[in-house]
Amino acid sequence: MSDRRDNPNADERPDIDKKPTPAPSRDTPFTTADMPIGGRLVGFLDDDIAKQPTVLRTDGYDILVVKDLKMHFPVTKGLFKRVVGHVKAVDGVSFTIRQGETLGIVGESGSGKSTVGNCVMRNLTPTAGQILFDNRDVTNIKGKELGTFHKYLTMVTQDPFASLDPRMRIEDSILEGVRINRLVTDPHEQADLVTRLLVLVGLNPKFAERYPHEFSGGQRQRISIARALALNPAFIVCDEIVSALDVSIQAQIVGLMMRLQQQLGLTYIFIGHDLSVVRHISNNVAVMYLGKFMELTSSDELYEKPLHPYTQALISAAPIPKPRVDRQRQRILLEGEVPSPINPPAGCNFCTRCRYADERCRTEEPALRDVGGGHMVACHRVAEG
Amino acid sequence: MGKYLVKRLLLLIPTLILVCVIVFALMRMIPGDAVDMVVYNYATNGQVITRAEAEAKLGLDKPAVTQFFIWFGNMLRGDLGNCLFRGDTVWSVIRAQLPISLELALLTFLLSLVISIPIGLYCAAHPDTISDGVIRTLSVVLASMPVFWIGTMVLVYPAVWWGFSIPLTYVSITQNFAQNMRMFLVPSLVAAVTSAGMNIRAVRTMTLEVMRQDYVRTGWAKGAGEGRVMFHHAFRNALIPVITLFGGSVAGLVGGSVVIENMFNIPGIGQQVVTALNNRDYPLAQGCTVVFAVFVMLINLVVDIAYKWCDPRVSLE
Amino acid sequence: MKNTEKRRRKNAFLDFLGTLWRTKKVAFFGLLVLVLFILVAIFADVIAPQKMENGLLASHLMDAAKPPSLEHPLGTDAMGRDLLSYMIYGARTSVILGISCTILSTVISVIIGVTSAVIGGRFDLYLQRFIDAWQCIPGMLIMLILMSIMGPGMVSMVVVLSVPGGIGGSRMIRSAAISVKDSGYCGMSKMLGGKNVWRMIHHVIPNIMPLVLMNLANSLGGTIMMESTLNFLGFGVNINTPSWGYLLTSQGRSKMYTAPWIGLAPGLAITIMVFAAAMFGDGVRDILDPRLKGGMGSFSRKKIRRIAAKYRSRKKAAEGTNG
Q1: Whether B211 and C296 lie within 8 Å, measured CB to CB
Q2: What is the ipTM of this complex?
Q3: Residues in chain A whose beta carbon is closer than 8 A to a beta carbon of chain B?
Q4: Which of A163, A176, A231 sits opposite C184 (nearest CB)?
Q5: b/e map of C26-59 (b: 16 or more CB within 10 Å)?
Q6: Which tens digit of pLDDT belongs to each residue from C125-183?
Q7: Subunit contact C202:A147, Cβ cutoff 8 A
């Protein structure tokens, strides 16, 4: 396929079921010295990375391991804030991402995909579960350690109009993290860094002096990306970064993200609701529904051989850019509403809208398990097939 | 609505306690020793008491926190203590003067409404015309004039020219309505006119703001008449900010009554507070301030309820 | 680099003046009047015909309550002091107190509002409860009580005119600061390691600056008014310090008929100054927050009527051709 990513590791598709690479557990706090990726900022930017792509160390070890992540928000009622229930935004999600690869998470709004991103970013402290970043437990870190953590793991968010301070010049926005953490203090070096970062994300370095309102959504998103890159992170959580953009711009931004991944050896979690966009950039895609992964496999496999009824419905809903084919295909229409995450169905979360649902689906919760070749599905019916 | 009401009423309790703490703390900070004054007071009556006795009489021998709780507890029972100079209890003084201040405030409030809402609506209906400009400029001029200056002129010139003067003794409204109005109409009119200056502009701005909304445009577009659009679409929606505005102006009104009462020599609480502060009569000043604060709290309650009634979306954070 | 920044700032100020001149002539004149009063206050010693000696304007009881003449352009007061000189020195009290207290109270508002918004949580809750209660006590009474605590004088006037207003004004600042704090860029700044103070200085305060300036321009008139009111009630500056409000209460009232110029001059001065401040404040608000402007924007009633009429005539025409 011509639109597949041109990754040097493209042929080594990861096997999801492969056990995480064992590494010596280090419970020492984060320090800037012992991170595996990249050098420190200034030295790293000495090469003109825009011209000479530098592939950093990509030995494909498990950089992020998430085990049984749960994020429940209490629902309170009445004068004394009695807790009457929990919104189970994320309810038991496990995955592993290898360095230099991308995990896509798709799902409709309210499925908890952004909550997963925010938990990984540790903007939220999960109710239960474990998050291991570079083999360190980051589930409960806070304060200084969290600050150090955020130098290696940054985020780009959805709304390009809200994410840039309208009263800050582009330069200042990009340099904010660098200034907060006092990574580069010399004004000339700072200016140099901004120029390099702007070139890196495909913008004119002269834009540094301007204000956000002078830019379009796509350009702003590029600026947001430059800001995320300023700290020289190893990992970026992309939370619906193209959802607010025009389709043509979406392609550009996705292309940019893919180029950056190659040049800088980045690892992504790419959250989105558009399956075709997510598939384009991801090595593996997880389909989320009501706080749980329904299916998790390599993106091609997911697209060509979707096993879960929900995934099938999602794929059938995506338009095919060939009208004749598009007209002939069969669409699976989902009926009914997404159940409330406060009170999810007893068995399979999807059973209320699934056309294959039987008695077992309504009572017994299916586990996410390997049905062959690293294809993970949470469905009772697939097991037989 | 019922739930909202209960919540809102429960919120009054901590607010009242905090108000009392603030007033109590501020009063304690006023210099000038009340003990000396009590000793001096007794001495003028031919009695000799020691400072310790005077302290005990005032309850000042106990720690400040205890004093506060004694005062607060007594207050809940309706006992605000005794005046230091007048022989009465604070409550009896306030009870005698509260109706006067309330009448003045109410009259001012109503007059201010009657003046500013129609004029404000007129301006909103004819924006950027000459009459609108004149009214707006005049309203700013009115708001810029010190109320005590207008008051002084109103007091002096009619008296000299027409021999009109405001009666000095208070007659209750039930006893003699004409005499009562003779006393209150001019002061409240002066207060209302100066506060109307701001309110006219606010009513105009808020109505215009609402008139820019899509639903009002729809009103015009579907061919509704001017009156219908103004009242049915625009004013009812503008009512919410207007209620907030007038509710908020009540605290200012009460503060303004201090000036008005002093100027027109109306024996209300506002005048009493100034006298009490000048005489260092703490219990009286304290009592008056708390009564004023409770009044403002109740008005805020009414405003909040009206607000909720107008806009069902409102909820307490 | 610093130079360009400086130039930019200066340009912004000049730009602002230019906009004021082009779009809001009245506001510009308001500003001019304010500047004039400030100049009078600053150069009082130079301008005043009768100079202050040892912080006092000497009284000449022989010339008491003389009507305006060439020698005394505004007449003399009941103690025979030149009224013009008294007014000029009085401007010092009103203008200096008015402007400094307005700035101070805005600064207090910003500090309280922004801290409360950014720190949030329990701190915010308790602080807001306190301010709720504080707001229930009429401001006038608080000022009188504070004046009683600190006694008459310039310093206590500064405190009294700025602290209660500052606490009251913090509400508006807080709500604006909360909306900035909840914005994407502030969250991102937090993620990048920005502490509360960093976010306050670099995001929250710059973004609420228009509101702060508006607040500043709009509360100037009120502060001047309050200053003279306190002086009028006898809770103001020292009685030897010339003050417009005090002149009104001490002499203006009793001489209102026999020597009206004594009451007229301070009243007019206050009115002009407050009016100028109000005009300036309005202009600033219109420029900084066009949403609140008096105009009706692009959907004026006239325009809509025109569109409606067009629609109707077209419909009629269509019916005509059909029928």
Answers
A1: yes
A2: 0.83
A3: 79
A4: A163
A5: ebbbbbebbeebeebbeebeeebebebeeeebee
A6: 899 989 988 888 888 888 888 888 888 888 888 999 999 989 988 988 998 898 888 88
A7: no
